[in-house]
Amino acid sequence: MHAGATEQRIAQYLISQHKVAYAITDRDLRVSEWGGDVRLFPRDLEKYSGITLYELAPELIGVEAELNAILTGEAPELRMPYVNRGTPGQDIYYLNLVNLPQHNSHDEITGILHLVEDITELGKLEQELVQQRNELSLLNERIANRNMQLAAANAELRQLDQVKSRFISVAAHELRNPLASILGYLEILQEDNESLTSDQQQCVNVIQRSSLRLLAITNNLLDLTRIEAGRIELDLERINMLTLVEHAATELQPRITGKKQTLFLDASPDLPMAFCDETRSQQILVNLLSNAVKYTPEQGSITVRLRTTDDGHFIEVAVSDTGIGIAKEEQDKIFRSFFRASNVHLSGESGTGLGLNVAQSLAELQGGRLWFESELNQGSTFYATFPVDDTEQEQHATPKRRPVRRSTKQVAG
Predict the structure, then answer these.
(1) Within 13 Å, how many C-alpha atoms sit on residue 230's CB side?
(2) What is the pLDDT of residues 249-273, one digit of tens each?
């Protein structure tokens, strides 16, 4: 007896410490005994002696068949986890309800042992977890919808970009033919310039300059579409880079002279041959020199320096001017298509903002780079690198036109 009483006290203590209450019913499911933390019950059992299990735990209403299966021994238990209870104005608390068969000393089922465990902290955590899962699921759904919208928008943009590229390509091709005719007739007129008055000759010159500018824009547009489509073909060969620079300077000589500018050329001795596409490299150099002339004021100076990079793998061409420069906040946009700096109006020059974008792409396609340094109102230096021809044992090549002297030489102005 003494041992049994001790075990009962220990059981009562453990039940109270773990916030567990119990109720025992007869086979009619009327409560006959209870204990533990009775605050977990919704009723004061002392005042409602003889109440049914359904009154004690309303959550069991509707599961009569399951409870009857326990009474008949057909089911071992009935568990109802995370039952929440509470009244208006009070915090919700969570319970685990467990219903087991109650046996007598002869192992006969005499009723149901109804256990109630307070799991409020765990229930709240579970509720938060469920809420977070729901929010995550909703967020994932929104992200999926957004991704679908972005995918559709990207597909539409790609289609529009293809339409734009086709339009630019067709328009540029259609422009080149009449431009070629115009320039051809202008050459005929200039050959017979003795029959033209001074005013007529001036008009012919204006038309020619405008036509050449339009042809350059047309060519840039065509190059842009080819680069975007990956259809640029390069004819790589050994090139004398100094000669190429001199040709570019000669091409721009009338504009340099017209603005009373001075062009200096500074080339390292024993400059090696480059290995690149002559036409495309010439295009890069003309673009850089043209911009320098365009944005340098009258009587300003332009310097072109050629040297071999420290690793010996590239020829670096640096074009420096004393022009208007580029603001720091706009320098990261200079190589974007159609971008023009906000201060270009100061030079009075027009443009499309395509030349540098095309030039950078052409430099990179040949294995080189194009970058710049600039300070507002002080000028800019644009650098282009071209791969050195390393296919022969001879590491150096002397320019064919004349020996290259290290000292700076004025070549135009």
Answers:
(1) 0
(2) 998 898 899 899 999 999 988 899 9
